[in-house]
Amino acid sequence: MSLSEQTELDQRNKAKKMLLWFSMISLAMSFAGLTSAYVVSKERADWLENLVLPSAFGWSLVVILFSSLTFEWAKRVIQKEQHQKGGLLLWSTWVLGVAFMILQYLGFSQIYNDFGFAFTGPTSSIAYTFIFLIVVLHLFHVLAALIALSVVIYNHYKQRYVFGKTLGVELAALFWHFVDGLWLYLFLFFYFVR
User: pLDDT higher for 162 or 146?
Assistant: First the structure.
């Protein structure tokens, strides 16, 4: 590859990373708006005073933070062309991502079955409706991250990531870390702002 081709490739890679950063910033602003609406809604007369978070949400936090570690580790070993170890770590991250989604579902089940609150209707609460809405929106982004990870796993097994050409892994890992950080923020927000 000539110097001009390498420069052009570097510029395209930087542009793709910048586009992902802009997208993540706009997503963060959306969640900031939703959590701001949650804070403003706390002044309503029908706000639930004794809001309890489901224990499954806490466990999901542990799982998703651990998945960030496995993805970061996977990215580093793939960059060193340790393909077998990288594949194992990518699959571990994928399994942890699916476990996170299952735990989120169990959290919804706890809210509905154990706490007695539905998303809408006569057994709903505005506080839990906000939680349902924000968590489901976050789950869509986790699903998008899982799809991106699936593409990375496919490309990894097709041996498309070689030394110096790991942009796909880097972008997917960055988005995964963002989604993980977003859940950390949301969990702490719901835990402390009741």
Answer: 146
* Confidence grade of residue 190 (pLDDT, cut at 50, 70, 90): very high
pLDDT digits (tens, 9 = 90+) for 2-14: 777 677 777 888 8
- CATH code for the domain in which residue 20 is found: 1.20.120.80
Classify residue 140: in a domain, yes or no.
yes
Count of alpha carbons within 13 angstroms of residue 161, beta-carbon side: 27
Length of the chain: 194
SS3 state at 165: strand
**Cβ neighbours for 24, distance < 8 A, ≥ 6 positions apart:** 174, 175, 178
3-state secondary structure of 117: coil
DSSP 114: I
Q: From CA 118, how far away is CA 112, in angstroms rounded?
A: 5
Q: How many domains does the chain have?
A: 1
- Compute the distance between CA of residue 24 and CA of residue 175 in angstroms, rounded to an integer: 8
Task: Tell me: pLDDT of 56 over 90.
Answer: yes
Going by pLDDT thresholds of 50, 70 and 90, the confidence category of residue 85 is very high
Q: State the Cα–Cα distance between residues 30 and 36, nearest whole angstrom.
A: 10
The reported pTM is: 0.91
Is 47 contained in some domain? no
Distance CA 168, CA 149 (A): 9
